[in-house]
Write a sequence for this structure.
């Protein structure tokens, strides 16, 4: 069902067969989605969760940690928030209730941690800028894998902006060269030459990203690429989930779906 729905959404974009559902007057810095078509909007220190129809479900804010740097909604039952300025990691459940105590990466020994993302078996990846290293912790916060200094090992200017684990691979976005791919043990596999990307997601075998007013896909197996113009070229963040397209501008969140009748 999901591969077909994603294909239909791309075809609807290309042919203009999208239905505008709602525009929500919310301001935000970035959005993310889960596999249930919920959308999460980050506005500095506030996280809002909306259902596929645009109804506000929950709001979360922690004034003690400042700006929310990123959210990983890979598991909608266990969201991961990262507060880079305070080196804090917060876990939320599907009601945006805090799950357990925050984790201090500084107390773990990583005062220059810059990125985090979820990993398999409730683990977590951390990028340590001090040593240019990717580190994986298990669910008990025990260090289980580390890459070593990637700037030296790969002989590149290593300045990653985001990362995601998907289908037993860790994808690390380094905008100057592209997306670096590692296995689940932290071994370097290859680089996907897609420079200049700052946010991406996965839908089945497609790597999906927004760039220059267009939604782009890169097929992980066939290497085929597509490029589709969006309804609003002023978007600052774009995500898709099942039959929903979410477009965040500076002033609003637009929600679209497929028109099956046209």
């Amino acid at each position: 069902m999901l591969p077909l729905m994603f294909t239909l959404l791309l075809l609807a974009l290309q042919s203009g067969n999208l239905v505008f559902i709602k525009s929500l007057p919310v301001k935000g810095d970035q959005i993310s989605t889960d596999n249930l078509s919920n959308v999460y909007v980050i506005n500095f220190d506030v996280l809002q969760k909306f259902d596929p129809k645009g109804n506000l479900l929950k709001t979360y804010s922690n004034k003690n940690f400042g700006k929310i740097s990123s959210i990983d909604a890979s598991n909608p039952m266990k969201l991961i928030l990262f507060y880079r300025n305070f080196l804090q990691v917060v876990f939320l459940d599907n009601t945006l209730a805090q799950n357990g105590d925050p984790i201090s990466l500084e107390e773990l020994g990583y005062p220059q941690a810059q990125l985090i993302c979820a990993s398999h078996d409730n683990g977590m990846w951390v990028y340590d800028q001090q040593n240019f290293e990717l580190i994986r912790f298990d669910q008990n916060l025990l260090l289980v894998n580390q890459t070593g200094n990637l700037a030296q090992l790969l002989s590149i200017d290593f300045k990653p902006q985001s990362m995601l684990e998907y289908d037993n691979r860790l994808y690390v976005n380094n905008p100057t060269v592209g997306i670096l791919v590692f296995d689940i043990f932290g071994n370097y596999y290859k680089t996907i030459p897609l420079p200049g990307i700052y946010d991406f997601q996965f839908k089945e075998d497609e790597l999906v990203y927004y760039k220059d007013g267009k939604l782009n896909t890169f097929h992980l197996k066939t290497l085929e690429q597509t490029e589709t113009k969006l309804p609003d070229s002023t978007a600052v963040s774009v995500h898709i989930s099942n039959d929903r397209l979410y477009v965040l501008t500076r002033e609003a969140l637009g929600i679209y779906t497929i028109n099956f009748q046209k």
Notes: The CA atoms of residues 206 and 219 lie 4 Å apart. Residues 2-15 form the longest helix (14 residues). The mean pLDDT is 93.
